[in-house]
Each structure stands twice: as C-alpha cells, then as structure tokens.
Inverse folding.
C-alpha cells in the first residue's frame, strides 16, 4: 500500500515541480520516489517494518497486500526505477510523460493487490489509459500514432471483454469479491457441476488478460505497438504490464481453482501455442525490436504454464520468473535503444558494441539469462517453473523445452556482430552514458549472475 | 571446491589484469594441477569422498561435489591438458585464455558433481566459454557453424534436463545422485529417461548420426578451441555415459545397447573413411576423432571391465594425442600459412627435431605397439569382440584406417620433395609438443601406471550398474 501511495504522490509532485523544466531534471524526483517505494515495500514484505496501521481505512476486501504481493510491488517499483534510469529521457519540457509513467505504475500495483473484480478492472484501466497516451507520446512520429491507435483499440476492446466476463461472473455467483467467488465455487464443486455463467465469465476475463499479456492468439498487436512506441514506453509495456498482468492472472485463476482441471484444458494449449508461435516468429524477424517483442510473447507462454500449478505454495516460482524476465528484458531493450540511436534497426547495430566492455558484458549476460542458460537467474527461473509444471503435465514441458532450444537461435544472433573478430569493419564509437546509468547496468548484471549462482537468495525474497 | 574456485579466479585475473605472457597463464593453470597432485590421496577412495556439500535450491538440490578415482582421473586429464593448450595460444588471441579458465571450472564441476541439477549447471557452464571461443577467435565468420554447434548441444542438454527432472520427480523431488540411483523405473520410464540422457551424451561425444556439428566446428575454430573441444569436452560426454546414463537408467541399457553399439561401429568406419579423403589436416583430425571416440563409446557399452578400463585409459590418450595433432597443425599453419596437404611437403628435410616429435604423435594416434594408443585400443577391441565378433571385426578396421590417414598426413606434409617455405619453430611451441610426445612413449611403455589410478572405482561403478540392472530382471 505504501508503494501505491508513494508512486502516486511522486507522480503528482513530479507533475507540479516539473511543469516548466526539462524532463531530465524532474526525472530525479520520480526515480527517488520509485526507489523509495521499492525499498519500503521490500522491507515490509520481509516483515522489517509495518505500515498496515497507516492504511487501516482501506477496505481489505477491495485491496490488500500479503508478503508475496508486497514483494511484487517492490519489484514493480524497482523495474519502474530501472527503466527510467537506463532508458534515456527526452529533452522536451514538461513532466507530463513522467507523470503518466507514475500513474501507470500505480495501476499495475493496484492490479497486484486487488481482491475484488472491480478493483482489478480499475487497476487494469489505470494501467492502460496512461499507456495509450504514452504510446503516442512522440507526436510527430507517424508510427507512434499508429501504435497508439492500435493499442487503444485493442486495449479498449479487451477491457470490454474482461468487463463482460466480470458481469457474467457476478451473474453466476452473486458477488465480485474474489474470496467469496472461490467459496461459492468450492460449494458448487461438491455438486460436481459449475454454473455455465461462471465458466463463460472466467473464459471472457481470461481473454481480456490474455490480450494484455499478449498471448497467442491475442498477440498480433504487440510487435506493431512495441515497434511504433518510443523505446522507453515499449520496455514499460513489455515488463510492467506483463508482471502486473501475470500476478493478477494468477490471482484470478486461483479464485477459480475448484475448476482447475477444466481450466487447464484450455490454458495448456494456449501456453504451448504461445511458446511455439512466439519463438518461431521471433526467428524470422528483421529488426531487433520486433524480435524482442516476440521474445516477450514467448515468455508470456512460459508464464502461462505457471497457471496450471496449484497456486499458493508455488508463488515464489512466479516471482522468480518475473524478476528474471524483467531484468533480462530491460537490459536488452536498453542496449537496443542505445545502439539504434543512429537509425540502424537490424541486428547489425550490435557491431558498434565491441568497443564498450560494459555494454558487451551486459549483452552477453542479458541474452544468456533470458535464454535460460545456467549460471544466470534465467535458468533458475525456468528450471523451477518447468520442474513444477512437469508434475502436472509432461508434454507441455517437453514442448516448452523445445521452445527454449529454438530461442537460442535468435537470442544469440547479436553475438555474430558483437563478438566475431572477423567482422571488424567501420565500428562507430557510441558515446558513453553517465556514471549513474552504468552503475544501474552493472547492478542489473550482478543481480542476474549472483541470483543465478546463489538461488537461495530468491527463496528469501519471496 | 578449489578446483572450481582456482580457475574462476584465474579467469578473472586474466580478464581484468593487464598481463600478457603465455608463461604466466600456463603457470596459473599449473596451480590447479599441483593442487590436484597433492590431493592424490583424495582420489584413492573407490567409493568417493565428499569434498563439498551445501544446500543450493530448496530441499531438492544440494551443491555436492565428490571425488572418487574416476573423477580424480578426469580432473587429472583436464588439469594436464589445460597448461599445454594455454601455452600454445597465439599472441593475438590472449583474451581466449580467460574463457579457457572459465571452461576449466565448468569441466571440473562436471566431473565432480554428484547432484543432477548441479551436473547440468556445470555441463552448460563448460559449454558457454567454448561457444564464445569458437565464435570470437575464428578465422572467418563462424556464426552459422557455432550456432549450429550450440543448438545441437543445447537440444541435447535440454533433453537431459527433462530426463533429470522426470527422474527426480520419481525419486520424490531429490536430485542427489544416490537418490536418483536408487529410483526404480518401469521399462517405459527408463526408455524415456535413458533416451534423454543418451541424446545429450551422444551429441557431445559425438556418436554417428549426431556428429554433424563436429567437423565444421573443429575446422573453423581457433586451434585452441579445437583442442579444448576434442581433448577435454568430448570426454564430458563419455564420462556422462558411464557415470550418469548407465547407472541411472540401467533398465534401458538392454534396449539401447545394440543400437548404440551399431551406431558407434558405423561411426568408427565412417569417420575413418572420410578422414582418408580429406585435404585439410584439421578436418582429418576431426574425423579421426569421431572414429576414435566411437570406439571408446562402443567399449563402454559392452559393459565389461576391459571395455571400461580401456575406455578410460583411451580418454586420456586420445586427449593427449588429439591435442598433439592440433598443436602440430597449428605450428605448421602458423609457419606456412596453410594446412592443406596438397600444398605442403618436405618439412622433414629442414626441421629434424620437429619431424621426430610429429612422427611420435602420428604413430601414437595410429596405435602402434609400445605407443600410448595401443594398450587402450587393444582393450577396447578385445571387449567389443567379446560382445559380438562382427562388431569386433568391423571396429578392428579402425587400426588399418587410422594408419592410412595418419601416415598420409605425415607423408604429404613432412616427406616429399616439395620445398615449402617455413619459418623457424620457436621454443615456446616446442615445450607442449615435447610433453605430448613424452606421454605417448611413457603411456605406451607403462600403461599400468595409469590404469591403477581408477581400477577400483571402475569395479565399484560396474557393480552399481549391474545392481541397477538387476532390479528389473
């Protein structure tokens, strides 16, 4: 809860203080609030401090945070801080864009903490509406306009579908509180048959969320939108939306856990399709950004496998996976942004990276981690997820492993230009970032490696 | 643990401190050899000595390292070859050494790991550096070759990971070697699990239809990459066969034995015949390596003690010989700018000492009696013959084929009237060659010294395998 308050407050303060300044100046304020939120929520999730008396007035059947959700809020704030620190800010005046980032992040946290379908819907909208604007925040860019339009239409449509599902659920159960729905369902489970309205409700709500996390067959918008949006916004969509979306999704499926067997029947095919389609489509992409977009689709597929597991005791797996996915994705997006500054969009951009040792290390570590190669956190996350899913469904894990094998082909593509000595032709010197950015980057790399070699730390976090 | 930490430290030192001498690098890599030799008593436990044990992930995965005689022998192979390889690194490829040290850490971990997931972790950790070595220091754009190599092995490793997860789910979630060993499998389960493990090892060894990555990767890699791959990394696959596949999925051996034996024999002959037709010396060595390791794999699959002992001995011998061959090719290429037999000739008339070392390594590889290749190959052929006389006769062809292509290399490059311009071979280049040539003669004369290192553990291992097989029958 302290996270929502801090980030929202930070957004408002940034808007006021940054009214007439260049964006880069007011950025510090927002970064500070995000980091503070990450630290305080993290400390609260470990039980070191307790803010619950401060927020007694919030009805707990609407919005409440347990230890896992607090750590997810902490991670969301950290990712927000990480994105705003790594990816460069625009030189324009005014802090409107920053404010929108803060409000979108608030929405993401509301989704994480929601205990009520209306709250979940509210979080979804608070997350989405600023992003519609952000996608088109480069007003002169024609592709940005296309992206914003596409994202708006798709997003509006999917939330409408979600809302219809929520309405059906209300019709079937007479309540919108998640815990009460679950109770009603476990009564129904005794009689063996579930109301059709509830089945339709969970399917429609899932479709709405599948749109948000861009799972096959609702993924077509995401490569176009990522490509058109400014890089910072695309990273935000790829990371924050997915992290919040999957925590909320897990919560929703957990609510309907009495029908788990029936739900698994359609989650598993969707997951496998997403993994395979995402990975195979990523193979043939020409630009780096689209490849990363398809990579994030395939990761949505792996994460969908999580939904077939019994939820409560397996939540740390979800946390670890989201952490590893976010770290790797942000680093790769950052490098893509930095080396595409001169307009080069294909993988050839990476030939300029060879003179910059830190960026080169970040490329290697980020790619290895997101591909799931051992000694990185990406492996730990994938291993935990797959071995847990294996006890539920063998074949989906075999196919997911096949997908990981395919993904090597495109995750390693940059190395051709970045490393092979024989390619040494007209290397351009790309200017170095500031010290602060480099420190952030090194922190990210160290997190990936240290959590990969000492995974017992993640057990402490979640 | 020291065998993992020392190489990692050495790698960090090399990557971040500005030292540029091959001698210092060799010295760094000698440290772990010295440490290993002082710990010879650790390697005298046939049942294995737990040297490190800490929880790693949850209840199920423990970071357990164990040294028994076979492990000690594999560690010895790694630590012995690494200084030789490091000493031969060209001056412009100095950065390669840091990767090589990292790979050493991974290899040592593979040989010591006594927990399924830790084994997998190190297995991949050994894989990453060699990928970057082959990619970064190759002579031409090598991306397609290396990515094929990586995907081949990665698919194999993922199959292994799936098998290990499956096996652990049957053993109640624990990845510990002992728990995996004691898990009883049904026939169908053992076929799936064994198949996954076998696929990983067959790609790495490589056994005949899975060898497609091999020749190109060897040819296009820098010489040190080829040495690391063929000298040490192939042995990971062979070691995996006897330590992980056979005891854990023993129920499936009866099913896979005839398949693997036949494929291995096919690979022996196929590799030999193709090697005869090649012009590039590196390709010849690549195919000869395919042929030799095929014989070792066949020897292991006969499941008798002559096959196991001979195979282990031959692992060391093949490691030394193939590294020696790549050293020679590297020196010839460095000094003449070619390694095609059709352009070479007449080295013997100018460089007497070099040619003598060259010849010793050639006959060692061709397994002439009293050289290192002979005892191991004899034991292996003996075991294959005991398994099935047809297989035995066919795999015996390896001696003839190997003599043909090895002597062809020597004849076309060293002999003949073709006066090739060649600059002086430097002292640094001679040192590793002398070590290898000495080992060829030493092991050829006293094979028993090497065999005694691991005999007891081999007996223990074979007992484990036959016990595990006996569960079903």
């Amino acid at each position: 809860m302290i996270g929502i308050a801090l980030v929202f407050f930070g957004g408002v303060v940034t808007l006021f203080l940054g009214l007439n300044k260049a964006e880069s100046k007011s950025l510090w304020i927002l970064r500070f609030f995000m980091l503070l939120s990450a630290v305080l929520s993290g400390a609260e999730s470990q039980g070191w401090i307790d803010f619950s008396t401060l927020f007694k007035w919030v009805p707990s059947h609407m919005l409440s945070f347990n230890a896992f959700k607090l750590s997810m809020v902490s991670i969301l704030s950290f990712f927000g801080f990480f994105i705003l620190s790594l990816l460069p800010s625009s030189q324009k005046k005014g802090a409107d864009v920053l404010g929108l980032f803060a409000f979108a992040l608030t929405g993401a946290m509301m989704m994480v903490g929601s205990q009520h379908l209306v709250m979940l819907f509210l979080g979804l909208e608070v997350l989405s509406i600023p992003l519609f604007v952000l996608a088109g925040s480069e007003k002169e860019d024609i592709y940005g306009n296309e992206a914003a339009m596409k994202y708006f239409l798709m997003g509006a449509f999917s939330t409408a579908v979600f809302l219809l599902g929520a309405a059906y659920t209300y019709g079937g159960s007479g309540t919108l509180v998640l815990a009460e729905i679950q109770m009603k369902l476990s009564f129904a489970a005794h009689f063996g048959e579930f109301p059709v309205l509830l089945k339709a409700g969970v399917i429609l709500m899932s479709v709405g969320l599948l749109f948000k996390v861009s799972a096959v067959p609702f993924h077509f918008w995401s490569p176009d939108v990522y490509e058109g949006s400014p890089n910072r916004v695309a990273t935000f969509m790829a990371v924050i939306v997915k992290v919040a979306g999957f925590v909320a999704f897990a919560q929703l499926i957990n609510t309907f856990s009495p029908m788990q067997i029936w739900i698994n029947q359609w989650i598993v095919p969707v997951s496998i399709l997403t993994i395979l389609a995402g990975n195979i489509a990523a193979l043939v992409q020409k630009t780096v950004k689209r490849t990363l977009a398809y990579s994030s689709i395939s990761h949505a597929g792996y994460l969908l496998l999580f939904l077939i597991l019994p939820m409560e005791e397996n939540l740390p797996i979800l946390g670890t996976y989201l952490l590893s996915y976010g770290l790797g994705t942000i680093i790769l997006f950052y490098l893509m942004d930095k080396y595409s500054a001169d307009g080069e969009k294909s993988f050839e951009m990476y030939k300029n990276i060879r003179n910059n040792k830190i960026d080169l290390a970040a490329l290697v570590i980020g790619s290895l981690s997101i591909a799931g190669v051992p000694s990185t956190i990406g492996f730990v996350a994938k291993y935990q997820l797959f071995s847990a899913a294996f006890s539920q469904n063998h074949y989906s894990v075999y196919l997911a492993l096949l997908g990981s094998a395919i993904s090597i082909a495109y995750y390693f593509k940059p190395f051709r230009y970045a490393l092979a000595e024989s390619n040494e032709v007209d290397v351009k010197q790309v200017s170095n970032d500031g010290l602060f950015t480099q420190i952030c980057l090194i922190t990210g790399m160290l997190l990936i490696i240290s959590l990969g070699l000492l995974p017992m730390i993640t057990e402490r976090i979640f | 643990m020291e065998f993992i930490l020392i190489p990692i430290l050495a790698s960090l030192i090399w990557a971040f401190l500005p030292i540029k001498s091959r001698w210092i690098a060799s010295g760094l890599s000698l440290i772990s050899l010295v440490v290993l030799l002082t710990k010879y008593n650790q390697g005298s436990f046939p049942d294995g000595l737990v040297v490190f044990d800490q929880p790693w992930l949850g209840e199920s995965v423990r970071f357990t390292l164990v040294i028994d005689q076979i492990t000690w022998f594999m560690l010895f192979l790694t630590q012995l070859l690494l200084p030789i390889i490091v000493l031969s690194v060209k001056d412009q490829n100095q950065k390669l050494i840091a990767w090589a040290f990292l790979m050493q850490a991974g290899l040592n971990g593979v040989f010591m790991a006594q927990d399924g997931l830790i084994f997998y972790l190190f297995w991949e950790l050994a894989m990453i550096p060699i990928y970057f070595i082959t990619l970064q220091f190759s002579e031409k754009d090598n991306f397609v070759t290396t990515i094929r190599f990586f995907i081949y092995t990665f698919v194999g490793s993922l199959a292994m990971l799936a098998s290990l997860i499956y096996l652990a789910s049957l053993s109640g979630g624990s990845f510990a070697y002992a728990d995996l060993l004691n898990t009883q499998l049904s026939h169908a389960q053992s076929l799936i699990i064994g198949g996954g493990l076998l696929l990983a090892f067959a790609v790495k060894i490589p056994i005949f239809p899975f060898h497609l990555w091999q020749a190109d990767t060897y040819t296009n890699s820098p010489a040190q990459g080829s040495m690391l791959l063929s000298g040490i990394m192939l042995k990971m696959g062979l070691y995996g066969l006897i330590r992980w596949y056979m005891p854990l999925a023993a129920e499936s051996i009866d099913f896979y034995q005839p398949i693997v034996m036949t494929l291995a024999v096919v690979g022996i002959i196929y590799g030999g015949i193709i090697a005869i037709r090649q012009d590039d010396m590196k390709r010849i060595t690549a195919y000869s390596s395919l042929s030799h390791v095929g014989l070792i794999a066949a020897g292991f699959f006969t499941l008798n003690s002559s096959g196991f002992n001979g195979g282990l001995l031959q692992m060391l011998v093949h490691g030394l010989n193939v590294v020696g061959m790549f050293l020679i090719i590297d020196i010839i290429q460095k000094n003449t700018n070619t390694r095609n037999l059709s352009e070479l000739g007449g080295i013997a008339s100018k460089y007497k000492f070099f040619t003598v070392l060259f010849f010793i390594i050639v006959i060692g590889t061709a397994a002439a009696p009293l050289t290192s290749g002979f005892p191991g190959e004899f034991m292996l052929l003996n075991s294959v013959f005991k398994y099935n006389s047809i297989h035995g006769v066919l795999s015996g062809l390896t001696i003839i084929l190997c003599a043909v292509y090895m002597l062809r290399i020597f004849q076309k490059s060293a002999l003949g009237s073709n006066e090739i311009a060649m600059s002086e071979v430097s002292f640094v280049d001679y040192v590793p060659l002398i070590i290898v040539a000495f080992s060829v003669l030493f092991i050829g004369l006293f094979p028993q010294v090497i065999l005694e290192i691991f005999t007891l553990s081999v007996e223990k291992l074979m007992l484990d395998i036959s016990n595990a097989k006996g569960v079903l029958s």
Q: What stands out?
A: The interface with chain A takes residues 55-58, 117, 120-125, 128, 132, 135-143, 147, 150-151, 154-155, 158-159, 161-162, 165-166, 168-169 of chain B (CB under 8 Å). Strands of chain B lie at 49-57, 61-67. The mean pLDDT of chain B is 87.
